[in-house]
Amino acid sequence: MKLIKQIVPGYEKDPSLEEMDNRSLQRMLRQHLQDKSYFIVLDNILKEMELKSILKALPSRGLNESRLTLLLTSRFVIGTTNVNYTHEMNALDSYKSWQLFMKTVDKFTGEENKFTKELEKKGKEMLKKCWGLPMAITDVARQKAKQRLLGIEWEKLFDSIDLSEPLKLLEPMYHQLEELIKPQFLHLSLFKENAIMREEKMEQIWAANGLDIERVPERLGLAANQFDIEKVTWVLAGESILEVVKHNFGKRKYRLNPLLHMISRTKAEEEIGFEILRSNGNSRPSQNARHRVIHYGRDKFNPFTNENSKQLISLVFHGGGGYLEDNSLSYWESCELLKILDMEDFGVKTLSETIGALIELRYLGLRNNYIQEIPHSLADLKKLEFLDIALNFMVEVSNIIWQMGNLRNLHMSNVICRKPLKVDAMRNLETLTYISIYDWTYKVSRLKTMHKFQKLGVEEVDENSDVGQLFASLAMVPNFDNLVLRGFRFRSMPCLDEIGVIIGLTVLKLDGRIGRLPSADNLPQMITCITLVNTCLDEDPMPILEKLSWLFNLKLQNAYTGQEMVIQQGGFPVLEVLCINELWNLRKIQIDDDAMSSVMELEINNCPHLKTLPTCIRRMSKLQKFKMVTTKHIATKIRNSGLTTNILEEDIHP
């Protein structure tokens, strides 16, 4: 009805529209739009809005001939096949934030305001607390404009900021979430403000609290076939709550805007017993807290009081360089209900054997610390599902890991194993990264029963490694599909021709030097994602990779040392994303006709000798996003070439 009132003459205030049914309204709008050119904007589309009704009212002939353009704006992902391009808005940077602030202030004061460099710097510092959200910036600008009209000097106005109104405007984003995923949003309060969060860690934290999707039917008293919901991280990203900052062919990384993080903390305090203790404040532990975050600063701080820990379910440490003192060793014995213990990036040197008293523990995060040895008492943690000890340089792992029969995810790197791990004894294992190829032991009969095991990361692979035996063993795992191979220092990995026996392999990452790639016939035919990092191939890998009929994603980083790359006619028939990074000698990319016909995203970074792009880029009709980081001279040349003019989203830097 709104469209008809704006488009069809004589119906601006016609009350008869209210009496017409939807089909009649559609017919009227369609007839008026027929054979005409229109640009229609539908702003702030709601999640529950039925777009099909509007799309039916648009003449298909006009759409096909591009005589009618429809622009939709929404904070939700619009799920319709009629949308052929989606542009994701990012938070504003410092410069754009200041421009929006100035524009809004000038509008409300009715004059053009001038600021000294010192005042502009102070104003930009104030706006940092808006974290690039236009809603917050415009509200703050209105506040300051009103105060300025009352005669208050700008110097004083830039001293403080009130974000209470933007937070009220953002709060409905929480209330509008499905009830099933509100708890996951509340548990984002356990992460640092403005932190880049790994998708796998978020999912593990949720799972440890019984919030993973697999357990939701059980929690709601539903049968599994009665329950259907998308992945929670995808839902939160689709509603503009989580921002995708990195998508590396599989697991993604996200950021939660700090203003939404404030809402997460506030609601978590109200609903799940969340609290934050800080070393630089007067905060005291609550006896009723169930989820606690401890922020360590430079001040002396001892949060370990046994009487205030008996109800704790989650305990997370934030801060840098704050080593746990001896008075914390007996603390674990009082945490009878603790399910989550996370000390990532905290500076932990040693772990007490008393940690074995945490018999309810499901998640133990010890990534990026200074731990040299894993306590034997970890074998007592029979309910532990997620153990992350990666990035602890040369940590010694005793032969007790295999006793943790409930482990689902085990993350390690550069570990010392006195005895090889009995991987096949961990029947519930889903992911293992990284294990030395020389510590990979198994029994064939047991591998066949590891139905959940899907991802393996293997390191220290060199020319003496028996990769054939590794591949043959993984071929026996029923649902295995994701393999990462890391070379050992500067040695080359051996020939990988036997990798084809892993029939179900879909994701492959090679990190390290390799003499040559297997032929296309020797690679698993179901492979969809390939990443080559530091492989330093002498021969162009494209003639092999372009023949893989299911390859959707390809990333090359320092993967090829040659000067020319050729993609032949019909190559890469279904490839959608291609990233080319750090090919230092590359001077030319040749793409024949009908090659890469499905590519939607192309990224070329740090290829300093690549001065031109293939002319066929202009004819790649599905290419929507192009990103390039190069020298200033080449960036200017590429822009002036006109080759990227038809690409909807172009980012050439500098």
Any overview of this molecule?
It is built from 19 helices and 28 strands. The protein has 654 residues and is an alpha/beta fold. Among the domains are: 2-72, no CATH class; 94-169, no CATH class; 171-262, Winged helix-like DNA-binding domain superfamily/Winged helix DNA-binding domain (Arc Repressor Mutant, subunit A), CATH 1.10.10; 273-419, Ribonuclease Inhibitor (Leucine-rich repeat, LRR (right-handed beta-alpha superhelix), Alpha-Beta Horseshoe). The strands form six sheets. The protein has a 17-stranded parallel sheet, with helices on both faces. It has a three-stranded antiparallel sheet with strand order 3-5-4. Strand 4 and strand 5 form a beta hairpin. Helix 5 (94-109) packs across helix 6 and helix 5 runs parallel beside helix 7 (134-149). The longest helix has 16 residues, at 94-109.
CATH topology of the domain at 273-419: Leucine-rich repeat, LRR (right-handed beta-alpha superhelix)
Mean of pLDDT: 89
Low-pLDDT ranges: none
- Assembly type: single chain
Give the helix tally: 19
Rough shape?
Answer: globular
Identify the CATH class of the domain at 273-419.
Alpha Beta
CATH architecture of the domain at 273-419: Alpha-Beta Horseshoe
What share of residues are in beta strands? 15-25%
Task: Return the structural class.
Answer: alpha/beta
